Amino acid sequence: xxxxxxxxxxxxxxxxxxxxxxxxxxxxxxxxxxxxxxxxxxxxxxxxxxxxxxxxxxxxxxxxxxxxxxxxxxxxxxxxxxxxxxxxxxxxxxxxxxxxxxxxxxxxxxxxxxxxxxxxxxxxxxxxxxxxxxxxxxxxxxxxxxxxxxxxxxxxxxxxxxxxxxxxxxxxxxxxxxxxxxxxxxxxxxxxxxxxxxxxxxxxx
Length: 205
Known about the structure:
Elements: H1 3-6, E1 34-36, H2 43-58, H3 65-74, E2 79-84, E3 87-97, E4 116-124, H4 133-145, E5 153-158, H5 163-168, E6 172-176, E7 187-192, H6 196-203
Parallel strand pairs: 4-5
Antiparallel strand pairs: 1-2, 2-3, 3-4, 5-7, 6-7
Helix pairs in contact: 2-3
Keywords: Acyltransferase, Biological rhythms, Cytoplasm, Melatonin biosynthesis, Phosphoprotein, Transferase
InterPro entries: Acyl_CoA_acyltransferase, GNAT_dom, SNAT-like
EC number: 2.3.1.87
């Protein structure tokens, strides 16, 4: 069984009825809104959104294109993209980590035996920001992680101004992160991933 078929909340969500041709016959259209794991073929679209979102703020991207390709080849199941009529509008990329706290190595490594999901980046396309899409995507991602038997918690690092956003998503601050990028310092945050048995019984996971 594929990960998608096992996770009903990742299946396409049709937000409006199919369009009709002038003659009144229905024609095929892409789903109005769809959530799915990313593939290496999505890497360029991911990087274009990320570059625009982060370079203007911090001068750099959490993941460069080669690193995006790296993680989407190694662990695509730990990513999630939001597509509207086939166009990527928001995404999350994660990998597994096997230590209590993040270290510099966590920026580039995927630890297959780990139980912590390191969320590297969440970004939303500039044309659909300020619509709550980041919060919705994070909620769906955390629900998805609850269906993965190896996932016990989610970890991320962010700048101070983003701490309130992630707190609203249910994350708690662990304190300063030992990871630095240039002159930037970060707060490390975590979210427990609970309820594996409940989710399996009640959502088809």
